[in-house]
Design a protein that fits this description.
This protein has a single domain, classed as LemA-like domain (de novo design (two linked rop proteins), Up-down Bundle), CATH 1.20.1440. The chain contains seven helices and no strands. The protein has helices at 3-64, 69-84, 88-109, 113-116, 119-154, 158-165, 178-181. The longest helix is centred in the first third of the chain and has 62 residues, at 3-64.
Length: 197
């Protein structure tokens, strides 16, 4: 065999290996991207469940605390923004506003002993707490899946193939909102809680 023929064969083998690597990387990227979408849809489901609970909770509190209209307005606006948000980044931002508004509502509820004895309020609060736990679990799962995808997209040589295939890193991570970092202490189990300091 001539040197030219060997060169052509070697070039074809390298091209086939590169194409094979490209196809393999693209298939993995597609699978990881779909896993991110699936994890996000689970977050979206639990966010929707919480949004569905909020009107009942607000109506229960409204019946007893009519003068807290500003907080009710904040909650309504934040809930509306959450329900109308289309992208994960928009939903994450709206969710952070809703977290803050709900925290203020539950802190206000501390000042009304009638609420602490309301079965409806206590049931809704338990449902909300359970939903918050599910949100935390799904949010963690989503962030882990997104981190796996982003790591893969940015590693060499995957980064080259990802660019060719039209994939890029996704920065829509869920993080704790500033208001959620300092959640007010709310205790509905005692009849006369001590004031928070």
């Amino acid at each position: 065999m001539s040197k030219f023929a060997i060169f052509i064969v070697a070039l074809v083998v390298v091209a086939l290996l590169a194409f094979s690597q490209y196809v393999s990387t693209k298939n993995t990227l597609v699978a990881k991207n779909e896993a991110v979408k699936s994890a996000w849809s689970q977050v979206d489901v639990v966010l929707q469940r919480r949004a569905d609970l909020i009107p009942n909770l607000v109506e229960t509190v409204k019946g007893i605390t009519k003068q807290e209209q500003a907080v009710f307005g904040e909650i309504a606006q934040a809930r509306s923004q959450l329900l109308s948000a289309s992208s994960p980044a928009d939903k994450i931002s709206a969710n952070q506003r809703l977290d803050g508004a709900l925290g203020r509502l539950l802190a206000i509820a501390e000042n009304y002993p009638q609420l602490k004895s309301s079965e409806n309020f206590l049931r809704l609060q338990d449902e909300l707490a359970g939903t918050e736990n599910r949100i935390a679990v799904e949010r963690k799962r989503y962030n882990d899946t997104l981190q796996d995808y982003n790591t893969y997209v940015q590693q060499f040589p995957h980064s080259i193939f990802a660019t060719w295939a039209g994939f890029s890193a996704n920065t829509a991570y869920f993080s704790a909102s500033e208001g959620a970092r300092q959640v007010p202490k709310v205790d509905f189990s005692t009849p006369n809680p001590a004031p928070a300091h």
